[in-house]
Design goal:
Blueprint (H helix, E strand, L loop, with lengths): L2 E7 L3 E8 L4 E5 L4 H9 L5 E6 L5 H4 L2 H8 L2 E5 L9 E3 L4 E4 L2 E7 L8 E5 L6 E5 L2 E2 L2 E2 L7 H12 L6 E4 L4 H11 L4 H15 L7 E2 H7 L8 H11 L6 H13 L2
Parallel strand pairs: 3-4, 4-5, 5-6, 10-13
Antiparallel strand pairs: 1-2, 2-3, 7-8, 8-9, 9-10, 11-12, 13-14
Length: 259
Amino acid sequence: MLNIDALPAFTDNYIWMLQDPEQRLCAAVDPGDAGPVQAWLEARPGWRLTDILVTHHHHDHVGGVQQLKAAHGARVHGPAAENIPARDVALVDAQRIRILDHELEVIEVPGHTSGHIAYFHSDAQTPWLLSGDTLFAAGCGRLFEGTAEQMYRSLQRLAALPSSTRVYCAHEYTLGNLRFAQAVEPNNRAIAERLEQVVRLREAKRITLPSELSIERATNPFLRSAEPVVAAAASHHAGRQLATPERVFAALRAWKDTF
C-alpha cells in the first residue's frame, strides 16, 4: 500500500500526499495551495512529484496546481466535465488510471459540483477512496451546482464500496458533522461514541481522518436516509412526511445548511 499523509492547508483543508517510499515518488491530491506541497518536497531531497489528482474545480482544491506543475512537471488529472487548470488527463466515469504504479478507478459523483469525481483504489487488503468534497467524515458536501437527487445517488455509489474502504476526504469537518448527526439520531450509540473520540482528537489538535466506510454507514446521517429513525427526524424537522430516502436526504441536507 502507498503511504498517504495529510498536509493541512488554509483553515480546514487537507492535501493528501500519496507516496512510494522505495522510488521516492509522490502525488498530490487537490492542492489548493502549492506552499504545503512545496515545503513537504523541500524537506525530502530526492523526492519527485509525478502527478496531481483533482476532484473538482473549486479554488481551494486547484489554486496551487499550475505552480506545482510548472515547478515539477507533474501530470494533472481531473474531471473532464469541469474546467481544471493545467489539466493533462481529462477523466470520466469508470476510467482507470495508474498513479505510482497503483490503479485507481474514477467514479463520477455530481452534487457538490456538476462534474465532481472521486478516486477509488480496490486494494484487496485495504481499499481506499479519495472523496474530495462529496463524502465527508459523518457528512457530505453542500449542493453548489448539483441537485439533492444527484448527491443522493453519488453517495449511494460510494456507500456500496467495500465496508473496509478508508475514506480520505478534503476537509476537517468531522466534529461539526457529528454534532449534526447526534441532533438527527440522539439515541445512536455509535454516533455518541464517535463524537467523544473526535472531541478528544480535536482538543489534542489531531486529525480525525481517514474514516472508514463501515463507520460512515453507522454514523453518517446522509448515508442513513433509509433508516426509519432518520426519516422520522427529517420529517419532523421539515414539518411534513417524507416518503422516500431521496426526499429524506434532501431534507437532511437543507437542515444541515442552517444547523
